[in-house]
Specification:
single chain; 11 helices; 7 strands
Length: about 300
């Protein structure tokens, strides 16, 4: 485990799942402020599922139980509180996302979604609708005990990543929670999607076309991932990784054959040419180049 760690149109204009505004602390925080003592009981309720679905060994389970740094990326939400706020995040969650417990606890976890609405809507819209339905406390929860989602998320620093999220309901001492375990896919992020940035008119057109293609791809893959992930998350992660890589290899200019060669320095290269830095560099190296040339000619 440690090695891999349509109503949509109605909500398409809403970049966040759940109610409320992004980043606001829920008014109702029952079970949030004093939740830390409840985590061992929640872990006991979840460990059989974790052992079976994630193939976790005893060492990984103990790391998760103790909430040690470098461990499993997971969080818990209070299903009964307004806006389904986080009431516990792991050290691994803090390390992976960059969001500390002090910021995350008491908020709905939609702060992980891309801040650019067009990107979030194009890639995540279907999953956000599924998440809304799953997180509603209702009498038919047992028929939807677990869900697996493929999401494009964003770290605090703005870097984006693919999050294969397994969520399932827990009942601990008569109270309802949702445990979310995140598997971060090792898939190269295209330069046009890696972070939010200003685009040229030409890039905007390319970006929109790429997002449309990506949205169509993940829409086809997600049902397969959900079905696979409910039985075996490692197999689901491999499936998602393979499909995303195959898509990128066929559509993304950052690939040259099997090699991942993103164009990261185009802006710097343009500035180099614009400022005629080569001429300045040549002038500074001219005497040294002449000496090298003279020596090489003398060796002939």
């Amino acid at each position: 485990f440690g090695k891999w760690a349509k109503e949509v149109s109605v909500n398409a204009s809403q970049p966040f799942w759940g109610s409320g505004e992004p980043g606001l602390v829920s008014e109702e925080k029952r079970g949030v402020d004093d939740f830390a003592e409840q985590w061992p009981a929640c872990f006991e309720a979840a460990q059989d599922t974790l052992r079976r679905i994630f193939r976790m060994g005893e060492a990984d389970l103990e790391t998760m139980r103790a909430n040690l740094p470098g461990g499993v990326v997971f969080c818990l939400s209070d299903l009964e509180a307004q806006d389904c706020p986080l009431c516990f995040v792991s050290k691994g969650f803090e390390e992976m996302t960059g969001f500390k417990e002090e910021y995350a606890v008491g908020k709905n976890c939609r702060f992980l979604q891309p801040l650019v609405q067009d990107v979030n809507r194009a890639v995540n819209a279907e999953e956000l609708q599924r998440l809304r339905s799953f997180c509603k406390a209702s009498d038919d929860r047992k028929r939807h005990d677990a869900i697996v989602c493929l999401l494009l998320n964003e770290r605090k620093c703005g870097e984006r990543f693919w999050n294969l999220l397994h969520m399932h309901h827990l009942t601990v001492q008569g109270k309802q929670y949702i445990l979310g375990v995140q598997s971060i896919l090792r898939v190269p992020m295209p330069s046009m999607l890696r972070t939010a940035r200003n685009l040229t008119p030409v890039e905007e057109g390319q970006h929109a076309h790429f997002l449309t293609q990506l949205g169509e791809l993940v829409s086809k893959v997600r049902p397969l991932i959900d079905q696979q992930g409910l039985a075996d998350m490692q197999s689901a992660a491999q499936l998602a990784t393979d499909r995303l890589k195959a898509f990128l290899e066929s559509t993304c200019p950052d690939y040259e054959g099997d090699h991942w060669v993103p164009c990261l320095g185009l802006q710097e290269a343009n500035m180099f040419q614009k400022d005629m830095l080569w001429q300045r560099a040549f002038d500074e190296m001219k005497s040294s180049l002449k000496k090298i040339w003279d020596v090489s000619e003398g060796c002939e």
